[in-house]
Amino acid sequence: xxxxxxxxxxxxxxxxxxxxxxxxxxxxxxxxxxxxxxxxxxxxxxxxxxxxxxxxxxxxxxxxxxxxxxxxxxxxxxxxxxxxxxxxxxxxxxxxxxxxxxxxxxxxxxxxxxxxxxxxxxxxxxxxxxxxxxxxxxxxxxxxxxxxxxxxxxxxxxxxxxxxxxxxxxx
Length: 171
Known about the structure:
Layout: H1 2-31, H2 33-36, H3 58-70, H4 76-98, H5 104-117, H6 120-130, H7 134-170
Helix pairs in contact: 1-3, 3-4, 4-5, 5-7, 6-7
């Protein structure tokens, strides 16, 4: 019986953490909606991608946040499935590659680079549904992602050691 209570608390704690990450991603995206969607965008909520470096389970929180936030996208029909799956895959690949190094700056760079390159999926959706040219759209969306990931990278470089230590202490 005692083990069952611990497992229940652990599961509840895990679900709350995932929900908090999803909620924060969604809230920041929607609060800054005019800048979060379209051919010229800076989605500052992308900084939450870096939380996957703290705990692997946060991949699910960010992915859920993307799914919910993308329901408000003008290109939601494609953005919900493609954006959600693309984020999930990028987070898994970025986390796997980042685990190969101990250097924080390199982990952050890996995450940033993967997400900037992956913006071809967003540009493709916008080009297809908005009838705009792909390459200029890819350029503007990738630059916006680079700005978002750079801002998030600077914040996470300062916070990551403390957050990781805190997460390990509470696990």
